[in-house]
Specification:
Strand content: under 5%
Oligomer: single chain
Distance between the termini: 24 Å
Radius of gyration: 19 Å
Order of helices and strands: HHHHHHHHHHHHH
Largest sheet: none
Number of strands: 0
Number of domains: 1
Structural class: mainly alpha
């Protein structure tokens, strides 16, 4: 991978990492569904404008739009809503760490839903390590009996499972070769699907809206969604899918650093142990580092 793509990869991880901070900044004023709706709509409109600049067009056919609707639910509506709701109880740092479980759940879902992506011994080890990390994060939240906030980390886990199914379902969309325009369609479709939730949960007090929440909404829509996906597809086109996966390792790092610096979040020993376990799981599932070590030894 070129130096430019490495720089873009770190920048992308920062854009996605800061999204957790933006959510926490917006939540005191905006309802979770409203945040997700605005994020998807703003990001979708930016990608739509980028799509039109490139002369791309919308796909045609009921089957194509059905596939996009399912993908929009799996990659926008469900995970964005669950993560945003969860952050009413958990910190941006914790949400980002749990979100790193996406590749681990992807290999589990792929094992049971595809014929060519089976679990191996190394992937099973990585999955177990990841689950140990999640357990370390969730145990303190479950102390003192049943509380709704104690289940909030589970909401992030459910979001990563939705992402995992989206990664598998996304193979249906690969035949359309849509890339940026497909993401624009997904975000706009997701925004439309969120309208009932926005109406049902309407409770935003516009008298209390200050500069920080508005900045957070614009940041998560323009930077963490619209610009982030443009950069994502640029890296994907130049460096390939294998290298773009590396962003998974970087997002929690940037999110945790930003959460500590800008939100004053505190980190405890179990956070570091959890991150270590999840990163070990990701390294095992990715496999590249271990293959290079074997080559170096031989």
């Amino acid at each position: 991978m070129s130096f430019q793509n490495w720089v873009l990869l770190f920048f992308l991880s920062t854009l996605w990492g800061v999204s957790f901070v933006f959510i926490e900044m917006a939540l005191p004023v905006f309802e979770p569904f409203t945040i997700v709706f605005l994020r998807a709509s703003i990001g979708g409109l930016i990608l739509l404008a980028f799509m039109k600049m490139r002369g791309a067009s919308f796909p045609r056919g009921i089957k194509v739009w059905f596939d996009y609707a399912v993908m929009a639910a799996l990659i926008v509506v469900i995970p964005y809503s669950l993560i945003t709701w969860a952050q009413t109880y958990v910190t941006a740092s914790m949400a980002s760490i749990l979100n790193a479980m996406t590749p681990i759940f992807t290999v589990i879902v792929a094992h049971f839903t595809t014929k060519d992506e089976r679990l191996t011994g190394l992937k099973v080890f990585g999955t177990i390590a990841g689950f140990i990390g999640v357990t370390l994060l969730m145990l303190p939240n479950l102390e003192g009996g049943f509380r709704i906030e104690g289940l909030s980390p589970l909401a992030v886990i459910l979001a990563t499972i939705a992402y995992a199914f989206a990664n598998v379902w996304g193979k249906r969309l690969s035949a359309y070769k849509a890339e940026v325009n497909s993401t624009a369609i997904l975000l706009i479709s997701g925004g439309m699907l969120l309208i009932p939730g926005v109406v049902a949960g309407a409770g935003t007090s516009f008298n209390d809206i200050g500069i920080a929440p508005i900045f957070a909404i614009l940041g998560i829509g323009v930077l963490s969604t619209g610009l982030a996906y443009i950069i994502y597809f640029k890296i994907l086109a130049e460096a390939g899918a294998t290298n773009i996966v590396l962003v998974t390792f970087l997002i929690p790092v940037s999110a945790v650093m930003l959460g500590v610096i800008y939100l004053g979040e505190k980190l405890y020993a179990h956070h570091f142990y959890a991150v270590l376990c999840i990163f070990i799981g990701l390294i095992a599932i990715d496999g590249r580092l271990l293959r290079r070590l074997r080559v170096a030894r031989s």
